[in-house]
Amino acid sequence: KMLRFIVRVIRSKLASRKVRMVFPEKIEGYDHRVALNLARLSQWAYPFGVAVSIDYKTHEDFIEDMERKRKKAAARGFNNFQFVYSEDKRILALIFRKRRDLVICFRGTVLDNTINLQADIQARFVPMESFGLVHKGFNSLLDSVWEKIKAHIQPGEKQRIWLTGHSMGGALALLAGARFVSEYKRQPNFV
Fold first, then answer.
1. What is the helix (H) or strand (E) element at residue 15, kind and residue range?
2. Dihedral of the CA atoms 121, 122, 125, 129 (nearest 10)?
3. Most buried in the list 11, 126, 131, 161, measured by CB within 10 Å?
4. Would the pTM of this model clear 0.90, i.e. be above it?
5. Which of 186 and 10 is assigned the larger pLDDT?
6. HEC string of 55-75?
């Protein structure tokens, strides 16, 4: 109960900050505004928007939180919010669309999720086509959602792709970036 109370307090403090998400038309090099926005979106990928060690207790909690995030995304100018979830691997990616920007945000490790922990410790390296050797556990997690993520890519469109994540989610974002280069012959705008 105490942990849920702390989560509610932190969530209310964060929700009270109305932040406009900035993705400038022209970016040359590093842009701290974009990095900050991607970091904020990474936080949204966690249960109830707080990077704590609890996962959703029920399917209803999950659906309720996704609906809350959909409204929050709309209030910040994203005209489309979806999520990709792998039931067997318990991995989550949030997908935001704003004009020609597509933001894919991977959730990091949730400590009471044993499947996430098992993936973290599968540190043996395996080959990834056109890229080299990668972490087996992270590659396996990305495999479980990759086809669903690809469904959001519009190859002919001048879509800007932004990849982000925290902790394990950051590793998944980097691997996804490598796959975009390998499969689509295009580099994401920011990882």
1. helix 2-15
2. -120
3. 161
4. no
5. 186
6. CCCCHHHHHHHHHHHHHHHHH
